[in-house]
Amino acid sequence: MEKTSKETKGWRSNKWVRAAIPALLLHCSIGTVYCWSIFSQEIADYIGFGKGATEWAFSFAIFFLGMSAAFLGNVVEKDIHKSSLIAAICFAAGMAGTGYFIYLGGKNPGSIPVLIGIYVCYGFIMGIGLGTGYLSPVKTLMLWFADRKGLATGLAVAGFGAAKAIASPIMQAMLDNLGEGGIYKMFFILAAVYFVMMFVGHLLLKKPDGWHEPQAKEKGQGMFAVIKSKPISNYIGIWLMFYINITCGLALISQEKMIVKCIGLGAMVGVISTFSAIFNAGGRLGFSAWADTMKDRNTIYKLIFVLSIAFTGLVMVTGGIKNGEGNLLLTVLVLGLIFVVNAGYGGGFSNVPTLLSDHYGMGNISAIHGLTLSAWAFAGLTGNQMATWIVNNFGEVKEIHGVEVNPTGYQCVLYATLALYCVALVISLFLVKPTNKALEAKKAGKAKQA
């Protein structure tokens, strides 16, 4: 008993070095994938293609993030050192490769092989680094912070969300000061910096000694056997509400800059974008830490969907995007919608691994979490594209302060997201069952009242 106590004390004293810091190093690096909008136009101009053609690189990156997490979840489960090293190598190699093909594109504008090379490097290779890098520290954090799993995973995933706010001004400064060819030079520099950060994270990352002993029986089951230990509708419900939350988040976030311009705040786009990134990161940390105090973590998803429905409905009813210019109340409502959706988008990510662990235990959590991230892959292909299709097919373009926008089109996006948020709330209420912990707490409460 004394030895166990000393070991536990040792684990606690090192949990920040062995889990939290490595997780932040990994997630703050790979999270910069969301900085795509900062340099996507520069890439398109430099290699001689339209922005629409280059945008697929980002969509592929998110798709392969989810799919690599789904297919490599068992690798992460067995060996976090191998998976974190794969993440560092693939992410840095993909970024450097992207820079190389951009360099070639500058010499041969309009070259199809160059565009394919960018798809492969930024989409496929970086996507593998993203998926394995995202998963690698999560279970380790939950093991070290067993009593505050939500806070721990929220901290790491908040790093993923905050990466955009931290890296965006740095990337913009590089583009402004590196001169001719600054776009490909930036990728080479960042590839080196992020490899160092991720490699240090890889070296530090470590599971607590002896963690597997109480989980031995559970680990004897395969991932699908664990999922089937509860009604399959339960897992399908978690997957669907995660997918819908990401799809709706991406649909709004992808149009965020143009919506801000619609309400006459074009000059403040950069500031508002930074604030939305802060809300994204804050939602990841705040919602997950809050969930630690709840009997059933699914309650957090109900709150996210209710808040999203409320703000979306208010902006729809008031025509906030169409009528917001010059109207303080409507401007506040539209900004509130942007910030609430960003916070809920982030909170949806940080609560998935802990919700899954509450339902299915820790034995196969990396594999199950990886499989669930396939929802992110498909949402990455549908969220942006859904919003773009709606904006292109509804409403009409008009000029506001010298900028061409489609207020009615952006307003119509809200009809789709509101309907989807309502579906997600129904799923959360009726398809995702309470955990055993929540049921036991409910029984104890009834017994106490009796």
Strands in their spatial order, largest beta sheet: 1-2
What oligomeric state do the depicted chains represent?
single chain
The count of β-strands is 2
Largest sheet: 2 strands, antiparallel
CATH class identity of the largest domain:
Mainly Alpha
Rounded Rg: 22 Å
CATH superfamily of the largest domain: MFS general substrate transporter like domains
What proportion of the residues is helical, as a percent range? over 70%
Mean pLDDT: 89
As a percent range, the share of strand residues is under 5%
> Based on the structure given, which CATH architecture of the largest domain is correct?
Up-down Bundle
Number of helices: 19
Task: Give the termini separation.
Answer: 39 Å
**Tally of separate domains:** 2
**Overall outline:** globular
Describe the structure.
With 450 residues, this protein is mostly helical. It folds into 2 domains: 17-206, Growth Hormone, Chain: A; 223-433, Growth Hormone, Chain: A, CATH 1.20.1250. 82% of the residues lie in helices and 1% in strands. The chain has helices at residues 2-30, 36-47, 51-78, 80-107, 112-144, 149-177, 182-204, 216-219, 223-227, 232-253, 256-262, 269-291, 298-318, 320-323, 328-360, 365-372, 374-393, 407-430, 436-449, and strands spanning 398-400, 403-405. It has a two-stranded antiparallel sheet with strand order 1-2. Helix 10 (232-253) runs antiparallel to helix 18 (407-430) and helix 13 packs antiparallel against helix 18 (407-430). It is globular, with a radius of gyration of 22 Å. It starts with a helix and ends with a helix.
